[in-house]
Each structure stands twice: as C-alpha cells, then as structure tokens.
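[Automated response] Your request has been received and processed.

Submitted sequence:
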Amino acid sequence: MGENVQPRIIGRPGTMLLGIGGHLDRMFTADADRAWNYTINADVGRFLTRHILVQGGIAGTGTFGGDPTLESGSGVAALHAFGGALWYFTPGSMASLYTGATYWSQITQRDGPDNGSVLATLGIQGALSSRASLFVEGGYGYSLTRNDEGLPTRMAARIGVRFKL
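Generated structure:
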C-alpha cells in the first residue's frame, strides 16, 4: 500500500517499531549533588498482543553540572542497556497513552556491584504519518542496589520518533 492509504495507527500485533530519541535524567540522594545526564538512545519494540509492546535498546549518556569528581557509579556518563514492556491503551488509533515498566543496567563506568534500576513509565505516542510517530515519556524509579548514600532514585524524560519497520 502507498503511504497515503495506509492507516495512521500506532501499531497492531506483529508491528515492529524502531525508536530514536533522547532524554535528560538525574540520579539523586539527600547527601549528593549528582550531575544531569543527557542521553541519546535507540530502541526496538514489537507488539506481542493488541496492547503489549516489548522493547529493548541501548543508550549513551554525557553529563553536565553536579559533582565533577564523580568518575564512576550511578548517575555518571555511561553506556546503558534497557528493556521492558509497555501497555498501550489505544494502539489502533492515531494517538495512544501508554504505561509500563523498564529495567536499566549500566554497562560502563560501574562502581562495584550494580543491580540496575527499575522505572515506572508513562507516555504518549502520536502518529505523524503511517510510518512515523512522535513519543514523549517520563519515568520514575529506584536503583536496585543500596549504597552508602541510601537508595538512589532516578527520574527520566524522553522524546523521540519511532518508525514502523
């Protein structure tokens, strides 16, 4: 089908999505002034059912602000892998709210044992055309590793474009 006659929907079972985006996040505790991270990421997702999308991806980060002496550990510039599942409320329409959970694991610049972070995610995705859609999402969660500063929390916000494959 041509671009003009294909339905402008988010997805249906079997639809693959390739996402490119970025976000800002910051790890923080009451005792430490951590830097803000900027992130460029790519993800791949597939609708397993009418509403459930599983996804995985990789993200690279850089930093600005915060404690300049931090060279490793949570909240520093690093390479991350992530994966999770999202529930789309109305994937058969031009726009859909979604929610889910994602697990993030820091691959580089680790400081001792690190069990990663789990984030609750809330977002919206809207079709720009039959092949491309814009997404905006936010997440909040916790590190699964307690350290000397307590249990670090993580906030994240992402914006980007997803393409149907």
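Summary generated for your ticket: DSSP finds no helices and eight strands in the chain. Strands lie at 16-28, 36-47, 52-64, 79-88, 95-106, 117-127, 132-143, 153-164.
If you did not submit this request, please reply to this message.
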